[in-house]
Design brief:
Layout (H helix, E strand, L loop, with lengths): L3 H11 L2 H8 L4 H10 L6 H17 L6 H9 L1 H8 L4 H10 L6 H13 L5 H8 L5
Length: about 140
C-alpha cells in the first residue's frame, strides 16, 4: 500500500517529464532522498519501503514466469537476499540461483535486467542490475 507522501511524490514525478528523466538516471538512494527533499517531501522509512515495494511489484509482473520464483524467493528470504546483494557479476547470480535449486539462464537474467531498465522511476532492482553491469 502506498503512503500518502509516496502518492503525492509519484504524481509530481508523473506530471513532469524533466523529473522523470532525472529519476531514471539516479544511481543511489542518496540521490533519490536529495530529490525528495528538494521537492519538499520528507520521506520516512515507511515511505521509502512503500516506493520500493511499488517498484518491485511492477518489475516482478514484467518477469518471465520461469524466472519469477527465484526473485520472489530473494525478496522473501532475508538470508538469501543478503547472498544476492553480495553478487558482483551475472555469473555470481546464476551460481546463486543454481545453488538454491533454480534454473535461471543468462537470457532470463538479461530479461529481468531489461525489465528493470524499462521501469519508470527509481527502483532498487535497477540499481542492483546497474551494479552487475547489466544496464546503464
Amino acid at each position: 500500500m502506498q503512503t500518502q507522501t509516496v502518492k503525492e511524490f509519484s504524481q509530481k514525478i508523473a506530471d513532469s517529464p524533466e523529473l522523470q528523466a532525472r529519476i531514471r538516471t539516479m544511481t543511489s538512494v542518496g540521490e533519490l532522498m536529495a530529490c525528495t527533499h528538494e521537492l519538499g517531501f520528507q520521506f520516512t522509512g515507511d515511505d521509502l519501503k512503500s516506493l520500493a515495494q511499488q517498484a518491485y511489484q511492477k518489475w516482478l509482473a514484467d518477469l518471465k514466469p520461469l524466472s519469477r520464483p527465484f526473485f520472489e524467493r530473494l525478496h522473501a528470504d532475508e538470508a538469501l537476499n543478503r547472498e544476492h546483494q553480495a553478487c558482483q557479476s551475472p555469473d555470481d547470480v546464476l551460481a546463486l540461483a543454481t545453488k538454491h535449486g533454480f534454473k535461471l539462464t543468462q537470457a532470463d537474467l538479461q530479461q529481468a535486467a531489461q525489465a528493470a531498465a524499462n521501469q519508470d522511476g527509481f527502483s532498487f532492482e535497477k540499481l542492483w542490475f546497474q551494479g552487475l553491469g547489466m544496464i546503464e
